[in-house]
Specification:
649 residues; alpha/beta; five-stranded mixed sheet; 21 strands; 16% strand; globular; Glyco_hydro_77; GH; EC 2.4.1.25
Length: 649
C-alpha cells in the first residue's frame, strides 16, 4: 500500500502535497486506496499558505520547499525525546528554563526535560525535551461520569463541582481510584447554551454552569434571596434555565467578592471575549470588523468600557479553579491513586473564544471531521476548528501547551478524544462537503511528546480514545509512551470476523482503560433490551431494515451471554437484566486492563444512552439526568454490589 500513488494528480503536485503533510489518497473503511480530489489538495495547500493553482505555481512552491529543507537551517521548533540525539548545523547555545545556558555541538541524550531556547546558525528556536514515556499507570477502578447528569440536594438543575467533590471523596473512600468526566470546557456565556460538551467555545477555560452556588463566598449573606433563584430539576436538563439562574445568583454575589482583578493576560483575553459576546453574540466572525481580532485598538477600548463584565468573567474562572481544586483535594485525601480524569474534546467551535484568541494558529474556515464510512456515507463534518501544523511549529506549540497545562492543573489524568488527531486530522474545506476533504498530518513526536511532557509534570495519566479504525502507528505510539488506549466491551471483537463474537477477556490490551460502553453507545440495559434498536428505528436512524438490526442485536446478546458463561461469570439459566449487568462488570474487572471504569447509567440499568450520534433535535443528547439523586445512588444496593466486585479484582 505504501507504493500507491494518486495518478489523477501530476507528480509535482503529489510531491508538494506530501511535503506539507497533505494526503493525496487515503485508505477507506474497506481498506481500499481512495484518491483525494485535486480541489481538496490545492484548497488545503492554499489554506497552508501554498499556491498550487497552476503548474508554474507548483514548481515555484517546490523550489521553496527544497530551500526550506536546507540542512543548515532548523525548524521553528525542535521536539526531542530525552534519550534521543540530534546533530546541529553548527555549534549553538541552549538557554534552559531556569535561565542557565550551555554551549553545545549537538543535542545529546540526557538534556533536562522542559521548554528551552536554542540559538544556532543565526536562528533562535524553541527546543522542547520530552520524556520517552510516562510512568506506568496504577491498577485502579473508578466511575465514568457525565457530571451534568448528577443531581443532589444542593445542586441547581444539573451536576456541579460540589457534587464532584462529594462523589470523589465517597468513591475514593469506597476503593475507587479515579473519576472520569465528560469535557468541562467553557461554552459561550450567552443563550442558547449548547448541550454538547464536545463543541466548546474554549478548551482552555472551564464551564461556569458547574459552579456550586452555595460554595461561592458571600452566599451565606444573601442565601434566602439567592435560593429563590434555584431552578427545579426537570425530566431533561435545561442548560439555558440553569445558566439564567446561576448567572443571576453570581451577579448578586460578585459585588461582595471584592475582586481585585488578574494579571493573567490569557484569562483577561478570554474574559474580554465573554464580555463582547454578551453585547455582539457568541460568534466573533459576525462582530464588527474592528473587533474580529483580539489585538486591535477597538478591542482594547471596548474591554476598558466593559471593565466590570471582563472582571466578572475572570472571577467566574477563578471560582471554577477554586472549586475544581477542592474536588481534586477530596480525591487525593480519599486515597485515589489517579484522581479526577478530564476529557479533552477534539476541537472547538471556530466562532468561539479560542477561535477568536487563537485564530493565528488555526486553519481559517476548516472543520475537522471524518471521511465516508459504512455508517456515514457522506462523511462527517464535526464543525470544529483545526490547528494549522505549520503555525504550531512556528509559534513553539505555545497554544497547544497552554491548553494542556490549563486542564492538567486540575487533573490526575486526561482522556484525549479522537487521539488519532494528534497524528492526522480530516480537514473539511470551507464551502465543501465532508466527502471532498483530505487528511492533514501533524508531527506526533511533537503533539504526543508535548502531551507526555505536560502530563509528566502534572503527575497525570493519559488515555487515548483510539476506538474504531485507527492506524497502527497511533496504537504503537500510545503504547511506546505508556499512554493508555481504550477498550470497550462492545468492540472487543476481531474486526475481520465481527459476527463471530467477542474475543476472550484475557486477550484485552493491558495498557488500556476498559469500560462496557461509551457515551455514544447503548447503555448495558439499552443493549440487552434492544431499546437502542427501538429508538433508532423510531427516529429513522437505522441503515437497514428493523428486523435485520433486531436480529444482529439478538445475536450479539447471545454471544455476550456465551462469553460470560464460558468464563463463569453468569450461571443462571434465564438471567435477568440486572444479573447480566452484574456479570458484565465482573468480567470487565477481570480483564488485564490497568484502569477499569463503570458507568452509573449501566449500574442503574438506565435504558437511554447519553448521546445518539447522527441526531440533533430528534433526541435529548447530553440532557438526560441520572434516574436517581446522588444521595440515592450512594445508597443503591446495585451500586454497592458493583463496587464490591470491582474492589475484589
Amino acid at each position: 500500500m505504501e507504493t500507491y500513488v494518486n495518478r489523477d494528480l501530476e507528480p509535482g503536485l503529489v510531491e508538494l502535497a506530501e511535503a506539507h503533510g497533505v494526503a493525496t489518497w487515503y485508505e477507506n473503511w474497506r481498506r481500499q486506496p481512495t484518491n483525494v480530489s485535486r480541489a481538496a489538495v490545492t484548497g488545503t495547500l492554499r489554506l497552508l499558505g501554498v499556491d498550487a493553482s497552476t503548474p508554474d505555481a507548483v514548481t515555484a512552491a517546490l523550489a521553496s520547499v527544497r530551500a526550506a529543507h536546507d540542512p543548515g537551517r532548523l525548524p521553528g521548533t525542535v521536539v526531542l525525546r530525552e534519550s534521543a540525539t540530534r546533530e546541529l548545523p553548527s555549534p549553538g547555545v541552549i538557554t534552559f528554563e531556569d535561565g542557565s545556558t550551555r554551549q553545545v555541538e549537538s543535542l545529546d541524550a540526557g538534556l533536562p526535560l522542559g521548554w528551552h531556547t536554542l540559538a544556532c546558525a543565526g536562528q533562535e528556536i524553541t527546543l522542547v525535551v520530552v520524556p520517552d514515556a510516562l510512568p506506568e499507570a496504577p491498577r485502579a477502578w473508578g466511575w465514568m461520569l457525565q457530571l451534568y447528569a448528577v443531581h443532589s440536594a444542593d445542586s441547581w438543575g444539573m451536576g456541579d463541582f460540589g457534587d464532584l467533590r462529594t462523589l470523589a471523596a465517597w468513591s475514593g473512600e469506597s476503593g475507587a481510584g479515579l473519576t472520569l468526566l465528560n469535557p468541562l470546557h467553557a461554552p459561550a456565556p450567552v443563550h442558547p447554551v449548547p448541550s454538547s460538551p464536545y463543541s466548546p467555545s474554549s478548551r482552555r477555560f472551564w464551564n461556569p454552569l458547574y459552579l456550586r452556588i452555595s460554595d461561592v463566598p458571600g452566599y451565606s449573606e444573601r442565601s434566602a434571596e439567592i435560593d429563590a433563584l434555584r431552578p427545579p430539576l426537570g425530566d431533561l436538563i435545561d442548560y439555558d434555565e440553569v445558566w439564567r439562574a446561576k448567572r443571576a445568583a453570581l451577579e448578586l454575589l460578585f459585588p461582595l467578592a471584592g475582586y481585585a482583578g488578574t494579571e493573567d493576560q490569557d484569562l483577561r483575553g478570554y474574559a474580554t471575549y465573554c464580555a463582547i459576546a454578551e453585547v455582539h453574540g457568541a460568534n466573533w466572525r459576525g462582530w464588527p470588523a474592528e473587533l474580529r481580532h483580539p489585538a486591535t485598538d477597538a478591542v482594547a477600548a471596548l474591554a476598558t468600557e466593559l471593565h466590570d463584565r471582563v472582571a466578572f468573567h475572570c472571577w467566574l474562572q477563578e471560582l471554577c479553579a477554586t472549586q475544581l481544586a477542592a474536588a481534586n483535594s477530596a480525591a487525593a485525601d480519599a486515597g485515589m491513586p489517579v484522581g479526577i480524569v478530564h476529557d479533552l474534546a477534539v476541537g472547538i467551535d471556530p466562532g468561539g473564544a479560542d477561535g477568536w484568541m487563537l485564530q493565528d494558529v488555526l486553519a481559517s474556515g476548516v472543520h475537522a471531521g471524518a471521511p465516508p464510512d459504512a455508517f456515514n456515507q457522506l462523511g462527517q463534518d464535526w464543525g470544529l476548528a483545526a490547528w494549522r501544523p505549520d503555525q504550531l511549529v512556528a509559534t513553539g506549540y505555545r497554544a497547544y501547551r497552554d491548553m494542556l497545562r490549563g486542564i492538567l492543573r486540575h487533573a490526575g489524568g486526561l482522556r484525549v478524544d479522537h487521539v488519532a488527531g494528534l497524528w492526522r486530522l480530516w480537514w473539511v474545506l470551507p464551502g465543501a462537503g465532508a466527502t471532498d476533504g483530505t487528511y492533514v498530518t501533524y508531527d506526533p513526536e511533537a503533539m504526543a511528546g508535548i502531551l507526555a511532557l505536560e502530563a509528566h509534570r502534572a503527575g497525570a495519566v493519559v488515555i487515548g480514545e483510539d476506538l474504531g479504525t485507527v492506524l497502527p502507528i497511533v496504537t504503537r505510539g500510545l503504547q511506546r509512551r505508556n499512554m493508555l488506549g481504550s477498550a470497550v466491551m462492545w468492540f472487543a471483537r476481531d474486526p475481520d470476523a465481527w459476527a463471530d463474537g467477542f474475543v476472550p477477556l484475557a486477550d484485552w490490551q493491558p495498557n488500556a482503560l476498559a469500560s462496557i460502553s461509551t457515551h455514544d453507545l447503548p447503555t448495558a440495559a439499552g443493549f440487552l433490551t434492544e431499546e437502542h434498536i427501538r429508538v433508532r428505528a423510531e427516529l429513522e436512524q437505522l441503515a437497514g431494515p428493523v428486523s435485520e438490526a433486531e436480529e444482529e442485536a439478538r445475536r450479539d446478546r447471545k454471544q455476550l451471554i456465551a462469553l460470560l458463561r464460558a468464563d463463569g461469570y453468569l450461571t443462571a439459566a434465564d438471567p435477568s437484566v440486572d444479573e447480566i449487568i452484574a456479570a458484565m462488570h465482573e468480567a470487565l474487572a477481570a480483564t488485564p486492563c490497568r484502569l477499569v471504569v463503570a458507568s452509573p447509567y449501566d449500574v442503574l440499568a438506565e435504558l437511554r444512552q447519553p448521546n445518539l450520534p447522527g441526531t440533533v433535535a430528534q433526541y435529548p443528547n447530553w440532557r438526560i439526568p441520572l434516574p436517581v439523586t446522588l444521595e440515592e445512588f450512594r445508597a443503591d444496593p446495585r451500586v454497592e454490589k458493583i463496587m464490591k466486585t470491582l474492589n475484589t479484582h
